[in-house]
Recover the amino acids of this structure.
């Protein structure tokens, strides 16, 4: 087989690259080893339930999401702009007062630190929301925890709210993630709306794949070798003028010999509850770390479509250790202040390579020479935004090649 451009990988980066190239009138074939698009953004349909392969959210404040997707068609089911903080006394709603002025009283009373520290956190988030991208890009990079300390975000407000919230976002309980990347993420939270598409997170890659010409994406085509001008799998060899490798960091290391990123993992558990343990579509965080769960949410409070007529709870443990469903369920009882013994365990997803560890540069080169290109979240930031931007950057590099 022969084509102008072959893209290896139909995750968000590969699909963004293919869409950009097709929109520019170029001939593209996308090959993926899996049987559907999405890579790390997949949703299983199990007995009428939508189960995302690991809890994740879509932030429609991400610029690349707005540029490349028809956001309205995704039918986002938004989450509360904040979280429910659980401790042994009960559950306390903390929301962003700029987005939810009605929640100010609860937030001021919530046991997450002094009023002064709450104002410091609010001022920092508001400053990030208003900051131009260049301001953040030009700042020095340091472990995010150190940056937070510089703004007085230490002590209870860090331990009871900021750390439990963001460790689930970065899969990094110590918040060692570089501050520039972290500040971009906090800025997008402060500006955007997060939630899940009514049809599951897979609606995101499905929409990108559907925009490509019929037969442009071929599934169950694993590639084992990439050389300039050709890719090879069990089916044989495809020759192409340009080769774009849009696989995850570890697979890119195997195919291209580029350095392999370290990765972070998580384990997500799905339960059907007998009734909603809380009314809000809000992340529940444990201020007292009484067990292994980093965050939990009643998904059907936001998106009833995830489990029509039922109550679906998603709970995530950061790291690769699976503490076991019984331990998780016990911790959920403490977090929700509910008896969870009747909850039905639906499925556990272990995702060892969920995110590449981000080490600093916001952007890594995508052109490797000899018309071979690489994209994926490991070339940008470990996020949906990073994956989409990297794919678009690789496509632009192809388009500007002579
Ligand atoms: C559990 C979890 C939670 C997350 N939460 C969030 C979140 O809330 N917000 C956020 O912004 N981001 C989140 N992310 C990160 C985000 O999902 C990823 O950054 C993004 O999807 C990566 O896309 P990608 O295209 O770079 O890589 P991938 O999705 O890994 O795509 C690579 C593709 O390449 C294919 N492939 C690999 N090897 C080969 C081969 N040899 N031949 C052919 N095909 C191959 C794979 O099948 C796959 O389809 C989360 C990720 C996970 C896993």
């Amino acid at each position: 087989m022969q084509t102008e451009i072959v893209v290896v990988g139909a995750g968000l980066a590969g699909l963004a690259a293919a869409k950009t190239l097709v929109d520019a009138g170029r001939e593209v074939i996308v090959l993926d080893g899996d049987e559907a698009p999405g890579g790390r953004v997949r949703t299983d349909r199990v007995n009428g339930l939508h189960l995302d392969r690991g809890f994740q959210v879509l932030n429609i404040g991400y610029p690349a999401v707005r540029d490349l997707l028809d956001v309205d068609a995704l039918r986002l089911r938004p989450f509360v702009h904040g979280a429910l903080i659980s401790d042994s006394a009960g559950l306390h709603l903390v929301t962003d007062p700029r987005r939810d002025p009605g929640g100010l009283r609860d937030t001021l009373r919530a046991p997450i630190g002094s009023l002064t520290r709450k104002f410091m956190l609010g001022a920092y988030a508001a400053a990030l929301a208003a900051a131009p991208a260049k301001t953040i890009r030009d700042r020095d990079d340091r472990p995010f925890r150190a940056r937070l300390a510089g703004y007085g975000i230490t002590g209870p407000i860090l331990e009871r709210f900021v750390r439990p919230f963001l460790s689930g976002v970065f899969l990094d309980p110590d918040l060692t993630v570089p501050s520039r990347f972290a500040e971009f993420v906090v800025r997008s939270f402060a500006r955007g709306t997060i939630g899940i598409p009514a049809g599951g997170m897979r609606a995101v890659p499905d929409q990108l794949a559907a925009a490509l010409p019929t037969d442009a994406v071929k599934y169950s085509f694993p590639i084992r070798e990439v050389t300039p001008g050709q890719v090879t799998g069990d089916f044989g060899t495809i020759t192409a003028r340009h080769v774009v490798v849009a696989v995850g960091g570890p697979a890119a290391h195997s195919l291209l010999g580029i350095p392999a990123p370290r990765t972070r993992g998580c384990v997500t558990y799905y339960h059907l509850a007998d009734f909603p343990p809380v009314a809000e579509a809000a992340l529940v965080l444990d201020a007292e770390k009484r067990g292994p769960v980093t965050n939990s949410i009643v998904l059907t409070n936001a998106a009833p479509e995830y489990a029509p007529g039922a109550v679906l709870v998603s709970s995530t443990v950061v790291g690769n250790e699976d503490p076991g469903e019984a331990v998780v369920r016990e911790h959920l009882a403490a977090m929700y202040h509910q008896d969870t013994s009747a909850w039905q365990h639906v499925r556990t997803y272990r995702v060892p390579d969920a995110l590449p560890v981000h080490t600093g540069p916001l952007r890594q080169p995508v052109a490797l020479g000899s018309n071979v290109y690489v994209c994926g979240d490991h070339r940008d930031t470990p996020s949906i935004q990073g994956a989409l931007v990297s794919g678009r950057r690789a496509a632009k590099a192809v388009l500007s090649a002579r």
Summary: The pocket of flavin-adenine dinucleotide is lined by residues 8-14, 31-34, 39-41, 54, 56-57, 222-223, 246-248, 251, 266, 351, 354-355, 376-377, 382-387 (CB under 6 Å).
